[in-house]
Amino acid sequence: MFDTMTFTKIVGGICGALLIFLMGKWAAESLYHTGGGHGGEEHASGFVIAVEEGDAPVEEAAADFPTMMAAADAEKGEKVWGKCRACHKLDGTDGTGPHLNGVVDRAVGSVGGFGYSGALSAVAEVWTTENLFHFLENPKGFAPGTSMGFAGLPKAEDRVNLIAYLQTTGG
């Protein structure tokens, strides 16, 4: 039942499979190798994606803040408010976040009954238009540890328009 010929076939099958595996590994390394070490050649890993000059990210012009606020449009800010509406309200009641009516020039963390994280009062005392401008750009960057999960508004125009709209909501 288990003679020498059967044993030879088993060992031959294992050696053949090992040989195919090693040759496949060698072929794959020579095709897909990106590191240095072979003949002194070094290859960059990854792909280079060529972009036209017009496709490059454009840095926002650094206009001074008072000029931007003077040109702000509260009606456009009302449209931007739609992004805030999921967590904040303007009727004096709190949602997931505190109400924002009258927030401009209000003391930071002053809405009674709302559980603030404490990170905001560590970086500002009053919600001035300039503090709001920087906070709305990147909330976690302005006040590390804040519980606000919003990523921010990257466009300066959207931020000043939203602040102009919030100024019209009163207290």
From TrEMBL:
Gene3D superfamilies: Cytochrome c-like domain. Keywords: Electron transport, Heme, Iron, Metal-binding, Transport. This is Cytochrome c-552. The keyword Electron transport applies. Residues 72-170 form the Cytochrome c domain. PROSITE patterns: CYTC (PS51007). GO terms for molecular function: electron transfer activity; heme binding; metal ion binding. It comes from Maliponia aquimaris.
